[in-house]
Amino acid sequence: MATFSIGTHTHLCMFHHFRNSRLSLHRLHSLQSSPPSLCRIRGPSLLRNHVLARAEDKARGSSTSSQQQFQDLPTESGTCDPLCSLDETSSQDFESSYKPKTDLLKAVAVFAAAATGAVAINHSWVAANQDLAMALLFVIGYVGIIFEESLAFNKSGVGLLMAVSLWTIRSIGAPSTGVAVSELTRASAEVSEIVFFLLGAMTIVEIVDAHQGFKLVTDNITTRKPRLLLWVIGFVTFFLSSVLDNLTSTIVMVSLLRKLVPPSEYRKILGAVVVIAANAGGAWTPIGDVTTTMLWIHGQISTVQTMKGLFVPSAISLAVPLALMSLTSEVNGKGQDSPNVLASEQMAPRGQLVFSVGLGALIFVPVFKALTGLPPYMGMLLGLGVLWILTDAIHYGESERQRLKVPQALSRIDTQGALFFLGILLSVSSLEAAGILREIANYLDAHIQSSELIASAIGVISAIIDNVPLVAAAMGMYDLASFPQDSEFWQLIAFCAGTGGSMLVIGSAAGVAFMGMEKVDFFWYLRKVSGFAFAGYAAGIAAYLALHNLNISPPTTLAEVPFLSGS
């Protein structure tokens, strides 16, 4: 058995190097006759470095470098070519970290907690005090989401458990199970529209990104002057985020910054600008941020009125921080020249075509809704279907480019993020079905007379708490009878929930992505950026109120298009 295992690893090494390094027949013969020790473990660090080096060499079309790296690898006992030892490395890592007793205790604790929860839910107290039980469970679940890093629990799993538990309590406390099922069916239909919309949008963006389509945007940024680059990065992100979601825009622009600016305090400032600009840009279009998308899908805001009413406040909420940051020492310092790394990245074949079709599909969604009256997610699925057929056609017979097709893109999208939205929205809908959100709305109306203050407070809270459940709660607390479509309240909700998350790095998906990519900590952002972001937030609200009270709206040609005027 040992002999068979060694022989198998040897032939695997021979196969991988023949495929990736294109070795000569002579080299293959020498590899096959090499000692069995060639295919043992070398170590995680060397493994990772050589795999990355191989990937880079392959991207540049260089086979010579790969062969040289292979020949330079030591062949003493305890070493291995990295490409043939992935499974063995994973197996040994698992064996070294496997602790049966600890894992058993964790499993017992999870099952004990589940059993305790099941017993508690079935207690008669829950049925008699449904509202209190649901409120307590929502708070506990939300604390788990906020402290997911400390508790080592993924927020998507916590959100799904919370949703199911809340609806279970609702079924116990409802007049009958049939009533609860009817409420759940209606809530699921509304929530699924948002989830399908997000999945379609994320897949389209992933396909465009796989084709390096965003190079068409990033290649046009050539300036290296610190102050000018600050404004260019800010407004490129602002407009990019109005079409893409703010998370994708942040990932694209921070990746670009790594190629334009060397590691420095200045690059962190630029990354913070990307976060502020991505959140501001997503607030003034229905497809720019998940919260505006939610409001748009459910009819609280319309396309043209939102763009007319929120463009200027969103631009001011970005321009004010940019102006203030331009005065800081980090921006006024001397700019550092950096090599043009972008030139080494090649756009995939037909990348420009895929970028144009993908961008057109995203922009066409509101037009499709206005023309057909169907929900927006149908327009997004239409665009995804067109792009799917297109990529299958243009890459037909190209087996080496499978990653550019939709099936591979589906495996790379943020599915857990979509499941998190599903859990959160279903949880909030259970509170709405139980009448809890209406009670909170009545309390706020009785104690806070100004709708502007309520919307502004939601924006501030969104810097601490995720804006998705906040907006979902606001939608449940106030219906269209209280505030009609495109009213000041709903537009302020869209603006405040979108831009308020910029005040803390953990307040938005864009900030969390930036924190992970650039290794920025919470307190650095609090010291260096939060004050500027708050100034922009306040200036944007003031600008909106001034324009609204004076009945001033920016001219737009879209308003003259008949089929968009009522969208």
Automatic annotation (TrEMBL):
Molecular function GO labels: antiporter activity; pyruvate transmembrane transporter activity
Biological process according to GO: response to salt stress; sodium ion transport
Domain of life: Eukaryota
The entry's keywords: Antiport, Ion transport, Membrane, Sodium, Sodium transport, Transmembrane, Transmembrane helix, Transport
Gene Ontology CC annotations of this record: chloroplast envelope; membrane
Principal subcellular localization: membrane
Membrane topology, record value: Multi-pass membrane protein
Region (Disordered): 57-76
Subcellular location: Membrane
InterPro entries hit by this protein: Cit_transptr-like_dom (IPR004680), NhaD-like (IPR045016)
Residue stretches making up the Citrate transporter-like domain: 142-482
Any single Pfam family the record assigns to this protein: CitMHS
Compositional bias segments (type: Polar residues): 61-76
Residue stretches spanning the membrane: 104-126, 132-153, 228-257, 269-297, 309-327, 347-365, 377-397, 417-441, 453-477, 489-517, 529-547
The keyword Transmembrane is assigned to this record: yes
Family affiliation: Belongs to the NhaD Na(+)/H(+) (TC 2.A.62) antiporter family.
Protein name (Swiss-Prot/TrEMBL): Citrate transporter-like domain-containing protein
